Amino acid sequence: MPRLNSIAIELIKFLKKNYLLSISLGILFLFSILVFFATEASYDAIESTSIWVRNYFGYFYLYLGLGCVLLLVLVAISPLGRIKLGKENQKPEHSLWAWTAMLYSAGMGAGILLRAVQEPVFMFQNPPYPSGLKPKILALEFTFYQWGFTAWAFYGLFAMVVGYALFVRKKRVLVSSTIEDTIHNTAARKGIDVMTILTTVFGLIAAIGLGTAQINGGLNHLFSSSFGLGTTLLLAMLISAIAFYSVWRGVDKGIKVISKFNIVITLVLLFFVFITSDLG
Length: 280
Known about the structure:
The protein is an all-alpha fold. Helices cover 78% and strands 0% of the residues. It contains ten helices and no strands. The protein is globular and about 65 Å long.
């Protein structure tokens, strides 16, 4: 019993010291309880909110993506593009192959194996907006938009800002550190950090859910069977365990190793599809 009390005290001290984590965990816990006990209502609310955002901000998203691409091109060709993120004579920590594998695995992951094929077909049947273009042209253009330069521009712009703050300005490893010189309101800066944690968690949940659904669907197709909720939960726990292990082991022994293995499997799959398709 004294041992448990000691652990509880240390945990409370840790949570008090890391209040951003405490606030984020509290919000996530309350949200999880709400979704668990009001699943259908939560789904309807999320779906209606998503539709509302797409209807009112859809074109803004398109313009924002184009703006990010153009901004990064301008930065790259300007004197700012020569600023090194690190020490002057420091070499890249990882090889080009390792960086490519990690970027691909983190930026695209399982989504490109399903969505990049599914989206053009879906958008061909359901055009995203009225246009004078042929449906097949619009579907391919929209797919290239979401899986091409635009997606990487969103990642790249955010990475550039954070990388500059960390490795050039020597700021803390917080998103709010990128704006602390211009926004002095502490509550606003902490709110940005909490929002970053929440959106990261929601993104990971979506990625795990998508990956689980893909694997489960593949098993159903291969074995001509219908695997139930138990299989889905096991797959979700397996994917989560692998992700946790890769993070726990660090970049060199975890994320980089798994990313390289992932990219090799992807290339093998690409080669298999090529030689077994009509083009092979």
